[in-house]
Amino acid sequence: MNAITIDNLSKSYGKVKALDGISFEVHRGELFGLIGPDGAGKSTLFRLLATLLNADSGNALIDGYDIVKHYREIRSRIGYMPGRFSLYHDLSVEENLNFFAALFGVKVEESYDLIAPIYSQIEPFRKRRAGKLSGGMKQKLALSCALIHRPSVLLLDEPTTGVDAVSRSEFWDMLRGLKERGITILVSTPYMDEASRCDRIALCNEGRILGIDTPEGIVRGFDAPLYGIRAKRMFKLLEAARSAEGVVDCYPFGEYHHLVTDNSFSEERFAEQMHTFEGLCIERLEPTIEDMFIKLMKR
Amino acid sequence: MRHNFISFVKKESLHILRDKRTMLIVMLIPVVLMILFGFAISTEVNNVNVAVVAPNRTDSVSDAVDRLAHNDYFTFKGYIAADDIDTLLRRGDVGAVVLFDSDYDRLAADLAAGIESRPAIQLIVDASNVNTASSATAYLQSILLGTATAQSMFETRMLFNPQMKSAYNFVPGIMGLIFILVCAMMTSVSIVREKEMGSMEVLLVSPVRPVKIILAKMIPYFAISCIVLIMILLLARYLLDVPMSGGVWGIFSLSLLYLLLSLSLGLLVSTIARTQMAALLVSAMVMMMPILMLSGMLFPIENLPKFFQVVSNIVPARWYIDAVRKMMIQGMPIVAVWKNCVILLSMTVVLLGVSLKKFNDKLE
Asked: For the domain bounded by A226-298, which CATH number is listed?
């Protein structure tokens, strides 16, 4: 049985379609990532799964329970961390944890073994107000609170947004540890570089799913040769490259422009055509998930 | 599940106790308002300086002036010449001048005998503060009338509040205002804050029923309001000397009902408002304004235009203030204001019902 089964789920706010017929499955014990920019409908999907909103059409099951009919059952099985979630700033670390334990009718000690790897890192600060913690520590506390009732499915809506790079990396290590203990995790993120930490990912944009696969599988789907180009006048280069022969697409990507080509492309001929650009440099690149995302989005 | 309810109340109390500034404001506002309305902003007559012009200082004139001089509310500033009246009033040295006719004795005697004649006394009053002027005039008249016209047409007796102390009037008004402030505004803001912070989503997802969430939020605010209520009653009794002749317990139980009503009102606002700012604005617009204008706190309801008189019927504070006034000042027992109680009770039931229905365990 799948931990989460989503079948043709749609949700609109007035005329805006937040989710447009989404379907996918998350296997038991899987770390599944929803990758997409703001406004892709990620938060809406989380709220539907957390039974906070009702879908316009379609259906979803968590642990075999219907999100509409058995919503009470689902609420005791999921650990949900909303995107804006920031704990209670005026309560101490300990008080926050105790409150969430009481909320779910459990004792902290009962779940201590589960949260220990995470909570032990912030335990030295247990008397400190949550508002005075660093972003990374807040995230650890929030995750501890979401785990306190031993949920079988963890729904984390953009848990790493606004957290520094080191803490983000630590956070993904913690998720990996939870996954090893058999917890199914559905996590969303706008950061493409975090996608490789998931077992499988779904790329989504404007309420639709563009592709679902393992991170490697997604990258493998990018079959066209990819180059990175750089010169002194980057903007002019972008315009010129777009009209060059054999170029399918060219877009800014960090310090480089990424050049998507077809089989008729030749590196020498391209360099010849761009000879007016000072300091031109061309490099063959391995595609990333973001390249695939851009490709899928433009299709 | 009892365990988690207590932790809920505990958590809510911690929020309140840790927000020291808000706590201080809540405790101070009633005291400040009571002192402000009780002493500073008063329409009552207090220490009005009075000068007297009396061409013939006969015995009866001296008698009248004596009564004036011995009255606590007036300070006798001495006899002056008629020419100085204007200057003294203009400079603000005196608030009123009493002018005895040179033929005072005879005119007074004529009046007493029922013979038509010209007035025996003229009162010249500084009316730059209309309220003070009119009450000073009325009170001066009653003092001077004492012997001058034994058989004047009216005999006015100001029952319950003979000195027309305005504190008496304001205490019920302040109570009507404060409890809405503390209960309605603070509960609504605290619920909306959870929405704004995103923690409401977690609370809703938890197995705890929304009714419990709400109840746990109400209890600490209810407790604070009770403390404020006791504070107000003590201040009213011992600082402002309000008689409370109708029995403190009656006032207390009626106030508890009003507290519940305010809490349900706050709950309703919180289900409508999405941000703390909006909750504050709604509270201010929908609650404060009608209480100030339409509850009879500042302006008597009978003086309002017909339309607003009708509207004032749905302002809960109107019924509460009216009942408290009756009990506090007129000394009626709670049974005498049963109509107000029934109205307040039904308002509470309706508000609580509507807001609990609107507060469901989903986001929309």
From this structure: 3.30.70
| A86 Cβ under 8 Å from any chain B Cβ | yes
Angle CA(B284)–CA(B290)–CA(B296) in degrees, nearest 5?
Answer: 135
| Domain extent for B353 | 2-41+165-358
Single residue among B81, B113, B148 that ends a domain in this structure: B148
d(CA A199, CA A184): 11
| Å between A257 CA and nearest CA of chain B | 39
In the block, residue with structure tokens 């000072």 = A278
Residue B141 lies in a domain: yes
Q: Report yes or no: A21 and A9 within 8 Å, Cβ to Cβ.
A: yes
More confident of the two residues B91 and A153? A153
B120, two tokens: 């025996």
What's the pTM? 0.76
| Structure tokens, B170 | 């304001």
CA distance A77 to A152: 6
Sign of the C-alpha dihedral computed for residues B42, B47, B53 and B58 taken in this order: positive
- With b for 16 or more beta-carbon neighbours within 10 A and e for fewer, the A243-258 pattern comes to ebeebebbbebeebbb
Minimum distance, in Å, between the CA of residue A16 and any CA atom of chain B: 16
Cβ within 8 Å of residue A197, ≥6 positions away? A31, A33, A172, A175, A176
**What is the domain class of A4-219 according to CATH?**
alpha beta
Q: What percent of chain B has pLDDT over 90?
A: 7
Tens digit of pLDDT for each residue in A236-277? 999 999 988 889 999 999 899 999 999 888 888 998 888 888
Q: Looking at the complex, does the CB of residue B199 fall below 8 Å from at least one CB of chain A? A: yes
Q: What tens digit of pLDDT does each residue of B198-234 get?
A: 888 888 888 888 788 888 888 998 998 899 889 888 8
Number of domains making up chain B? 2
Residue B89 maps to which CATH number? 3.40.1710.10
